[in-house]
């Protein structure tokens, strides 16, 4: 499947901002046997005074830029064409939960995709007893790692309500868990913590999701948003799988990967600092257009 993507992120400030330095992680990745970035570009307005490119620990291309002069708005636009390949359905050769620690210990690598990076606490995710108890109530140790991942994905989807007004980007996983409401970031963080509490390595995936309008309704331009789902390590034979608890589906041809990390802090699309005071407003619009 070939997609054209467009993303616009616009920030407006009550008082002109200056001395702004930001880092962007917006461009979809090229992944072997998964997806290919055909072409892409990012534009920033006003034009940055400084700009540089680098690759972070998790091997994501990132762009750092600085704006010295005062500005009332910041407008960021990304356009890309991405080829997404169909993925074979993997048979479950993952180990039982009781046998998973041995397989993890057999992994000596500390490369970015090593399961060791995705077991403990991370900047936004600290183990919470309530979420651990919830995870243990959903599964048994007689299940395989993959069965547990699918069971938790389905259970979170059933127990939680999608509500874009219930949480913010700074809502903690425990707060969202107690509300049983939230958005894809909340569903993803809760599932990661639940899996880690059982000793199953799990991480965060940031990207785009093609959405299909209801029958008889036209697709609204710019109505989509960036999406998040979960990456789960299911042993040496299977490796990593990806599940979307917001929709209770495996990540497939409608999911386009931008970045992998331990939690949202590793994959924030735009992050930075600036000099200003007063409030600010942010608007995001995404289009995911299938070409064939």
Automatic annotation (TrEMBL):
One term of GO molecular function: peptidase activity
Segments forming a coiled coil: none
GO BP: proteolysis
UniProt keyword Disulfide bond, yes or no: no
Alphabetized SMART domains for the sequence: TGc
Pfam families: Bact_transglu_N, Transglut_core
InterPro entries: Bac_transglu_N, Papain-like_cys_pep_sf, Transglutaminase-like
Keyword Protease: yes
Regions crossing the membrane: none
Keyword terms of this UniProt record: Hydrolase, Protease
Record domain Transglutaminase-like: where: 176-247
Record's protein name: Transglutaminase-like putative cysteine protease
Source organism of the structure: Rhizobium aethiopicum
Lineage, broadest ranks: Bacteria, Pseudomonadati, Pseudomonadota, Alphaproteobacteria, Hyphomicrobiales
């Amino acid at each position: 499947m070939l997609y054209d993507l467009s993303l616009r992120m616009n920030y407006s400030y009550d008082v002109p901002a200056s001395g702004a330095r930001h880092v962007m992680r917006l461009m979809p990745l090229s992944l072997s046997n998964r997806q290919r970035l055909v072409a892409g570009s990012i534009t920033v307005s006003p034009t940055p005074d400084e700009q540089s490119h680098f690759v972070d620990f998790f091997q994501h291309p990132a762009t750092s830029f600085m704006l010295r002069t005062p500005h009332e708005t910041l407008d960021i636009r990304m356009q890309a064409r991405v080829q997404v390949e169909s993925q074979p359905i993997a048979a479950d050769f993952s180990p039982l939960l009781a046998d998973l620690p041995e397989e993890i210990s057999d992994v000596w690598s500390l490369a970015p995709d090593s399961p060791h990076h995705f077991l403990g606490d991370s900047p936004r995710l600290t183990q919470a007893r309530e979420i651990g108890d919830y995870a243990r109530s959903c599964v048994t140790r007689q299940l395989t790692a993959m069965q547990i991942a699918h069971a938790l994905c389905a259970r979170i989807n059933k127990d939680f309500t999608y509500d874009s007004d219930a949480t913010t980007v700074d809502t903690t996983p425990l707060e969202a868990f107690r509300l049983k409401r939230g958005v894809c970031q909340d569903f993803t963080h809760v599932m990661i913590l639940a899996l880690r509490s059982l000793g199953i390595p799990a991480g965060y995936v940031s990207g785009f999701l093609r959405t299909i309008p209801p029958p008889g309704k036209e697709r609204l331009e710019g109505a989509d948003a960036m999406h998040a789902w979960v990456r789960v390590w299911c042993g040496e034979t299977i490796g990593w799988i990806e599940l979307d608890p917001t929709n209770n589906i495996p990540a497939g041809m409608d999911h386009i990967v931008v970045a992998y990390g331990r939690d949202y802090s590793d994959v924030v699309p735009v992050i930075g600092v600036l000099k200003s005071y007063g409030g600010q407003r942010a608007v995001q619009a995404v289009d995911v257009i299938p070409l064939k």
